Amino acid sequence: MPEGDVVRRTADRLDAALSHRTLTRAELRWPDVSDVGLLGRTVLETTAYGKHLLTRLDDGRTLHTHLRMEGQWRVDRTGSRGAAARGTQVRAVLANQWWTCTGNRLGMLDLLRTRDEARITGPLGPDILAPDFLEAGLDVALERIRAADARGGFHQEYPPNEGLPVADALLSQRGVAGIGTYYAAEALFARRQWPWTPVRDVADLRGIVLAARTLMRTSVEHGIDARGRHVHARAQQACHTCGTPVAVAPANRPPYERPIFYCPTCQPRA
Question: Which of the residues are catalytic?
Answer without folding.
Answer: 2-3, 51, 258
